[in-house]
Amino acid sequence: MHRGFVCLALIAGVAAPALAEGYDKLDLFRAIGLAEGEWATVLTVENMVVTPTPDMADDADMAEAIAGAKAVQGSVFNTTDCLGNGLSANGDLVLPGVSIAAECTITERTVSGDNFAITAKCGKASDFTVTFKGSKTGTGIDGTADMHMASARMTTAITTRIKSTWVKACTVR
User: What is the pTM of this model?
Assistant: First the structure.
């Protein structure tokens, strides 16, 4: 199983009800209406921007990080995930092409018909945030993941296009 680029740290089913505050990760998985089984996902990095903090603006390593971010734009990654009930043994929320770590908190969530949006925060409030927005498309999903990371040296913003298709039944290990 491989999570691809989006793992820096979601679809077949019936229309799902709106979510109220307090739903946990497993409730969210069920509300989206994901089908258990094997999912094939294509992740395309649409944009990646590294912005140094003012004191790091002239640092040679930072120039290399900025150039590396530009080189990643347009990269395509393929993943295959076997989804069970939505949570791995360690409590991660596992979705097609995306895994939200157990220690992350779902801070915003909306499920309305075939559309969904999820925001998770990891670490301190500003350290790492990922927002996944998408729509069910028959036996698949089409969406984007926007990630924002902050450190003492830089901030990084990444937008990734996610297209995923349910393939077949599988056994979660």
Answer: 0.77
